[in-house]
Amino acid sequence: MSGGPGAGAEPGPAPGTTGNGPVRTIFFGSGSFAVPILEAVAADPRLRLVAVVTRPDRPAGRSATLQRTPVAELAARLAVPLLQPPVLATQEAVTDIQRRRPELGILADYGRIVPREVLELPALGILNVHPSLLPRHRGASPIQATIADGDVRAGVSIIDMDEGVDTGPIVAVTEWPLTGRERAPEVEARAARAGAELLLRALGSWLDQSAVVEPQEAMRASTTRPLRREDGRLEPSRSAEELERRVRAYDPWPGTFLETDAGRVIVHEATVAPSRADDVPGMLVEQDQRLALATHHGRLVLERVQREGRDATSGEEFLRGQRRLVGSRVKRPGVEGST
Quick check: 199 and 129 in contact, CB under 8 A? Predict the structure, then answer.
């Protein structure tokens, strides 16, 4: 179906595309996924970047030094006005954006709710570059969900934002196959490049108001949420294949770990081996000179691990130093002893 700004009207040049110069554009973004997309926007002669909106600086590390978002750092290098409201749903934030007179908004990895008052400011709407094949994996952690759920394809969707969470009509999509070995940073990097390229292609029809958009199929939708540290706990009630996917999906945040008699063990890399008849889910066993976690279906073999406060080591080296863990069980939160 036809959609986007001006749907149902005669197609014509967007405001600012002829006679008035480039389209006044405001960018919303925070994380590293948004950086290549902002670079593409800044370099596009069809657009004039009037401001960048990002999250406020946050304390980081043991010293709690304030740290800028990757997008804020890029905006500084580009010498673009930077706005960092804690939330957008205030009159001050809305007025500050309104003063920039944006005709188009572009959003990627912003991490904040965009209220209706802001959505309505640009005449050409706000395009959201989202790293999943919508309506699958709406929300805050789509790349991690793509890997953790064992999807065979990854992708990027561009939508015309509405008040829902990643629910707007789809403007453009690109996708590619997954091998089943990718880690989250690898998928994110590819998605960021693909998203920037897709946006540049989609802008032509969007700016001249000839874009054809498709509503999302609500029945196919799935939703993700922000990940917490505890989400990285590797539970033996899941299959070894599920746990191995989480090891790759939750790199670097929240990371994956086991609670053992030697303390918390961070799992950086793992593989899957078949179960044995005498395996007890939750028990640590030896597998090919490495430590492995027995699950209800398969063994999770620890290939590269790290005890808290120590350097990461190979699975073989870890087992040589922690052989006493063989036969013990991993611990659950709030439960004394083994699982």
Answer: yes
